[in-house]
Structures are given as C-alpha cells and as structure tokens.
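JOB MANIFEST
job_type = single_chain_structure
chain_count = 1
residues = 220
[input]
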Amino acid sequence: MSRSESGVPPRWPILPLRSVVETLFVGLPVSRHHQAEEGARVIHEPVLSVGDIEAGRITPREALVPVALRPGSLERFRVQTDDLLVSCRGTVLKVARVPESAASLLVSSNLIVVRPGEMLLPAVLLALFRSAAWQSELRLRARSSERLVQLTVRDLENLPVPLPPRELQHELAALIEAEQEHHEAALRAAAVRRALVDGLISEILLPAADEESSREPGNE
C-alpha cells in the first residue's frame, strides 16, 4: 500500500487520473478547421468554448453561434453526456459537466475533455476538479503568461484520484448534486431579488429624474 507524504497509509487506493478515465483530449483547433473560402463546401455547427462556461454551467445549445467548418474528421471532438470540460487557456480555471442537452456538441481547443470511466462517478470527479486542493494543484502545474493560464493533457494525467467504495461514491454524488441544485436555486432567487430591487428603484427614482429633465430649458 502506498503512503501519503505524511507517512500515513491512504484510506482508499489512489491512482493517476489517466488510469480512471476513459480518455482525455483537447478540443477542436477551430482556426485550422475554419472555412473562410467563398464557394467551398462547409458545415455550420456550434462549438463550445471556455467563454461558454459560467458558474459551472454550459451555455444552452440554442444560444451558441454556429461556426463555418470544413467537413472532415470532427467526430472525435464531440462530447458525450457526463464528460467534464476543463479550461486549458484563460484567466480563470473553469470546469463543467456536460448535460444531456449538450451531448454531441463540438468543443474548441481551449478546453480539455475528461471522459469518466467506470471506476469513478462523474459527479465525484467533478467535485475533485472543483476542490480547493485540485484547483491549487492545477495552478501549480499550469504555465502562465501575462496572467493567462495554460494547461495540457499531460498536466492532468497524473492528478491523484482517490477511489472510495462504490456505495460511498453514490452517497457523495447524491450530496454533491443536492448542493448543486441548492446553489442554482440560490442564484435564481438572487436574480429575482435583484430584478425586484431594480424595478423598485426605477419606479421610485427614475420618474422623478424624468420629470426634472422635462423641466430643463428647451424641453418645455
């Protein structure tokens, strides 16, 4: 049994990420596949980018702008349900889980796709990527240039993944998903409160401002 840096045996087996996932790959290099030649055969498809991840959620398919691409071997750059998207270029490290509604979308090369295997539930792997420990580790492994973080597949391959029993994984997944639902509900409630306050401020203050404006010389 391997030991941690403190000399204490780990509670569960710890394996490198590459051993517990089905695959890791970088997304489509859009600039190489972009078709700008007039009259050439093209396909138009939306491509997920790092900017399409916000607060752990992916922009809905219908809100994505299609990109003109040369037909070719694009299938290997498509995501599946429960894939994890990890930003590999940008100022902020982002991670999101692909919902069923986003399955089959193409992803760009500023994202690394992590496809969970059978050894670890996607929700648990997502929680590891979001944890302070892994976020700190990723920043240590990343190359930075002018505040831009750059990660490669190799930087992720050796991340240490604990493998608790399957029953415990399911319990953790239920807890993680319940917390996520609570977090999203809190965000929606905050948005509603903000809209109500904005409406109230507009109702109380802006009519008075409009009235003063109408009394300015030349407006009478």
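[summary]
The chain has a mean pLDDT of 84.
Residues 67 and 76 are 17 Å apart (CA to CA).
exit_status = 0
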